[in-house]
């Protein structure tokens, strides 16, 4: 248990998982900054996006396309479908309630969990599915250290997407509009900013990044309607990092990922879902 190499391997795995947590947390922060609503359904969105990828990959693979084409087309279709999901959620569930107290909006996101999980169980069944992974499920050795290649490449991809969105958020016109809306919605509207469009864009970003995270997470274990429970871990990330701080969420994601890995190593697998909340 106290083997330094084993502890280091678990530490690396936790930090790599933290990269995916950062991508998930980014979606929660974007929605909160723009709409001041905490999206409890983000874990369910992650799960639903993973199922969409699973469906597209199975269909395209059955048509005889090579694997790299399957991965590319499935990911593009998943991103497109997730963006549509974000638009539908914002337009038909959230927008009619805008201007109301935040509590009804939060309850809508909680109800959305049951809708998405129930829909997944009906469409795909509760049985575990095993999506084709974007990256090889192999182990690479760096000296005496064993590193999961899927987790390493998922970590790199998650950080690249995270950084790309942060750059767009800080440099683009839409990014400035999101920040202005987050500061004061009424003033932003008076300045000519289409606040409804900003709300919709925030949900699109959240659903797309969440779905990509689901695609990366599902092959590490299996895909079931309960995959969205990972959203509970990310709640501790955004609480620790701050709902208004993108950089804070990134740092907190690495820390929570590492804490979960260490808790699972020293205290057992069940404890890793509890310990982050105890610390936060």
Can you describe this structure?
The protein is an all-alpha fold. The protein is built from 11 helices and 2 strands. A two-stranded antiparallel ribbon has the order 1-2. A hairpin with a 2-residue loop joins strand 1 and strand 2. Helix 2 packs across helix 8, helix 5 (149-171) crosses helix 6 (173-183) and helix 5 runs antiparallel to helix 8. The longest helix is centred in the first third of the chain and has 32 residues, at 4-35. It is globular and about 60 Å long. The mean pLDDT is 90.
Q: What can be said about the biggest beta sheet?
A: 2 strands, antiparallel
Q: Which regions have little confidence, pLDDT < 50, spanning 5+ residues?
A: none
Mean pLDDT: 90
Shape: globular
Helix/strand-derived category reads mainly alpha
What is the radius of gyration? 19 Å
Q: Which percent band covers the strand fraction?
A: under 5%
How many helices? The count is 11
Instruction: List the quaternary state of the chains.
Output: single chain
SSE string, helix = H, strand = E?
A: HHHHEEHHHHHHH
What share of residues is helical?
over 70%
Defining traits:
280 residues, 2 strands, mainly alpha, 74% helix, two-stranded antiparallel sheet
List the helices and strands and how they pair.
Elements: H1 4-35, H2 42-62, H3 67-94, H4 102-124, E1 139-142, E2 145-148, H5 149-171, H6 173-183, H7 185-190, H8 195-217, H9 230-241, H10 246-267, H11 275-279
Antiparallel strand pairs: 1-2
Helix pairs in contact: 1-5, 1-6, 1-8, 1-9, 1-10, 2-3, 2-4, 2-8, 3-8, 5-6, 5-8, 6-8, 9-10
